[in-house]
Design brief:
The protein has three helices and two strands; from the N terminus they run H-H-E-H-E. By secondary structure, it is mostly helical. A two-stranded antiparallel sheet has the order 1-2. It comes from Nitrosospira multiformis.
Length: 126
């Protein structure tokens, strides 16, 4: 597969992952809105919604971690330099530092893989 086709494949995968995260976020908000509704005091309700969204964000980090692992191991579209063991927790760590935009500079992407995190911020733009 040539380089441009690989970039398009990764862009498509990124779009699917973002769609999954948006749906996860939407369902979390819908569930929290239905469950909490008018039954809870406003301040406690806001606190519970924030905790629920924190859990949703945590799950979205895992979605991206699994995608990074899949793209590297199953599809062979580049690699994350600095990952030595290649277990899921390495990918979770990379996903969490890039999801929170902290970044460490320790790990970075190679080859077509670089396109995968480009759309990562879209599910959290609310």
């Amino acid at each position: 597969m040539n380089e441009h086709a690989a970039h398009l494949v990764i862009l498509g995968i990124s779009g699917m992952i973002v769609a999954i995260c948006v749906m996860l976020h939407y369902e979390a908000l819908r569930f929290l809105g239905r469950t909490l509704g008018a039954h809870i005091h406003k301040r406690i309700g806001v606190l519970l919604v924030m905790m629920g969204l924190l859990i949703a964000h945590f799950l979205e980090v895992w979605v991206f971690a699994v995608a990074y692992m899949f793209v590297e191991h199953e599809m062979g579209f580049g690699r994350i330099a600095g990952i030595t063991t290649g277990d899921i927790f390495d990918y979770f760590y990379y996903s969490s530092i890039s999801y929170t935009t902290v970044g460490s500079g320790i790990w970075y992407l190679w080859a077509q893989y670089e396109c995968l995190p480009l759309l990562k911020g879209l599910p959290v733009c609310h």
